[in-house]
């Protein structure tokens, strides 16, 4: 059984990757509007090879978030990302369901 | 996230201590708030601290915006509460299906059964087992508002004491396996035990959502569906 399916252990996954010497970032849903697929507090860990654990949407924005996470791993700066139908990139990485979501991305020291 | 904050958050989660990680979205600074202490990169005014602790009790992560602050001061409160718990009374076949389904749903599962032949590691690999009588087990495990209790034994000697203890606890869900006839007889016995009509009405029985479940796995899904509905499903019939 996949451990990351069990609720709320993405921080542990991030710590395990970090302990294994990988660079890691955490992405967290901090606010949603409308019918976003994952609730506030949902998390995804990303490592420097692009491996992902958990999710911040139904699969629509994870690639874009992982891309920004790689930047945070490099410069150490957190990022606040917004996705949704009002986003000009909606056709590319927006939520297919029409919801909106803000995701906070931070490197794990 | 700073190493120190990460380590303390992991320690709190491992020890099942409720905590909230508060992030200043403008600066990236973070502070951990516990029920009795605070540790981290910035201080919080008493009223904000009260609000964070209210969020912990409500299990409600989200943004905190200070309308008085023109700088757009914004905090994100991420509540990390211990896992919800499911106490299963009866190490029976259905419990063998319900335990993994509940674990997958994120619940911390304990199977209670004093009958040694049922509650074995071989039948429940990796599941917490408690061999006390159900009323003693519940006295030890102290169901709280984040705990569901389900009885599955069909044996009044085991189920009834568990139901009495569960109904007198803050458990958010109490369910009992058994047909309508079995359940009606059970309610009669519990009334004779001195439970009020309001108390016995709190039992979900026959347990589970009505989805025509037949096999142990299907019944486990119907029970987990009902527990989920009671927890999350405002305005849904459960």
TrEMBL record, chain A:
Organism: Azospirillum oryzae
The protein's name: Predicted sulfurylase small subunit, molybdopterin cytosine dinucleotide biosynthesis
Lineage: Bacteria, Pseudomonadati, Pseudomonadota, Alphaproteobacteria, Rhodospirillales
Pfam annotation, one family: XdhC_CoxI
PANTHER family per UniProt: ALDEHYDE OXIDOREDUCTASE MOLYBDENUM COFACTOR ASSEMBLY PROTEIN, MOLYBDENUM COFACTOR INSERTION CHAPERONE PAOD
Domain XdhC- CoxI: from-to ranges: 17-84
TrEMBL record, chain B:
Superkingdom of the organism of origin: Bacteria
Residues spanning the signal sequence: none
InterPro entries: MoCofactor_Util/Proc, XdhC_Rossmann_dom
Transmembrane segments: none
Domain XdhC Rossmann: 86-227
Pfam families in the cross-refs: XdhC_C (PF13478)
UniProt-recorded name of the protein: Xanthine dehydrogenase accessory factor
Organism this protein belongs to: Azospirillum oryzae
Higher taxonomy: Bacteria, Pseudomonadati, Pseudomonadota, Alphaproteobacteria, Rhodospirillales
């Amino acid at each position: 059984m996949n451990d990351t399916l069990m609720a709320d252990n993405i921080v542990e996954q991030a710590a395990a990757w970090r302990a294994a010497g990988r660079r890691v970032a955490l992405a967290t849903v901090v606010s949603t509007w409308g019918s976003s697929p994952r609730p506030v507090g949902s998390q995804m860990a990303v490592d420097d090879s692009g491996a992902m654990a958990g999710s911040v949407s139904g699969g629509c924005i994870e690639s874009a978030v992982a891309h920004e996470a790689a930047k945070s791993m490099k410069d150490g700066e957190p990022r606040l990302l917004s996705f949704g139908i009002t986003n000009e990139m909606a056709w590319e990485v927006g939520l297919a369901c029409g919801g909106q979501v803000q995701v906070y991305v931070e490197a794990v020291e | 996230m700073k190493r120190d904050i990460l380590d303390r958050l992991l320690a709190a989660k491992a020890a099942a201590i409720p905590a909230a990680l508060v992030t200043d979205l403008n600066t990236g600074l973070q502070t951990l708030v516990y029920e009795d202490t605070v540790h981290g990169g910035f201080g919080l005014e008493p009223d904000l601290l009260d609000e964070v602790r209210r969020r912990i009790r409500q299990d409600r992560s989200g943004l905190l915006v200070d309308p008085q602050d023109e700088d757009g001061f914004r905090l994100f409160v991420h509540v990390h509460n211990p896992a919800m718990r499911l106490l299963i009374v009866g190490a029976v076949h259905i419990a063998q299906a319900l335990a993994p389904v509940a674990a997958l749903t994120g619940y911390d599962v304990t199977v209670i059964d004093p009958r040694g032949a049922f509650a074995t590691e071989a039948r429940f690999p990796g599941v917490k087992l408690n061999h006390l009588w159900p009323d003693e087990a519940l006295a030890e495990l102290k169901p709280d508002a984040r705990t569901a209790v389900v009885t599955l034994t069909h044996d009044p000697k085991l189920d009834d004491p568990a139901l009495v203890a569960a109904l007198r606890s803050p458990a958010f869900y109490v369910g009992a396996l058994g047909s309508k006839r079995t359940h009606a007889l059970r309610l009669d016995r519990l009334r004779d035990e001195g439970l009020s009509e309001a108390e016995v009405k709190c039992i979900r029985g026959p347990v589970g959502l009505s989805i025509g479940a037949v096999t142990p796995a299907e019944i486990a899904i119907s029970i987990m569906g009902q527990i989920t509905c009671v927890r999350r499903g405002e305005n849904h019939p459960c």
